[in-house]
Amino acid sequence: xxxxxxxxxxxxxxxxxxxxxxxEGLGWEPTLDLPEIVFIQVNHGLLLxxxxxxxxEADVGERPEVSDAAARFTLAHNVGSQSExxxxxxxxxxxxxxxxxxxxxxxxxxxxAYVADPDGFRWEIAYNPGWRVSPDGRVSIVPVQxxx
Amino acid sequence: xxxxxxxxxxxxxxxxxxxxxxxEGLGWEPTLDLPEIVFIQVNHGLLLxxxxxxxxEADVGERPEVSDAAARFTLAHNVGSQSExxxxxxxxxxxxxxxxxxxxxxxxxxxxAYVADPDGFRWEIAYNPGWRVSPDGRVSIVPVQxxx
Lengths: 148, 148
Known about the structure:
2 copies of one chain form a homodimer. By secondary structure, chain A is α+β, with helices and mostly antiparallel strands. The first copy, chain A, has helices at residues 15-25, 53-60, 82-90; strands spanning 7-12, 30-33, 38-43, 46-52, 73-78, 98-105, 111-116, 122-127, 131-133, 139-141. Chain A contains 3 helices and 10 strands. In chain A, the strands form 2 sheets. In chain A, strands 2-3-4-1-5-8-7-6 form an 8-stranded mixed β-sheet. Chain A has a two-stranded antiparallel sheet with strand order 9-10. Chain A starts with 6 loop residues before the first strand and ends in a 7-residue tail after the last strand. The model of chain A has no long low-confidence stretch (mean pLDDT 87).
């Protein structure tokens, strides 16, 4: 498992208020500014996602065994293929983590799973064929046809 | 305010369990592995910090107006000087955020403040004179004499 964070997603109550703070207030330029989600580049190959909390919860799925506290945001680690998602998952439980959402096709058109670290912090392990990082570190997200 | 995340710190219940998960389990190599804190490089110029939750709370200071949920981790944005910390703070309240800990000398030897975004997510705005990023993105932290 490469040691790399690709995406940090905050589950927000009011996306307009968050946009006002980060985009209008701090002056940060979005990579993608949609009515349902905002992505902002915050380092080389790294995006900050602003996503309504209810939708983030729905994407992660049920996790009755942990408090809500650690589920208010997710960290994402991208890998290069579907089988690498499966391989990464094999390391989780022996290391003291747990699998929150088993590996499956993802709404964004790739393949993903959610795991919890020992504190319940959520990591998405994702194969996202539309994720591109240019040599200067700029991320772009190319639409991918979701699989039926 | 440059759009850049430099450090993501998770407040953990048991640092040994977290070390077991990230360092021994996932095989991630620490940049700094101390009994009281672990830093792991997770992208160009980006560290993941594992820090006992109680000490992270103490560093952030009191925040009675928000739930614990958003305070379980902090994001950090480094700036180049003490006056840039002060300048960044001026943008926060007009944008719908709030100041959690006013700008002040920091335990690490620099100068910092904590602010909350509209959901209460904590950002540390820091001038850390010991923070170095090499051209290939590797972060090192040089000890700085705390000011008395």
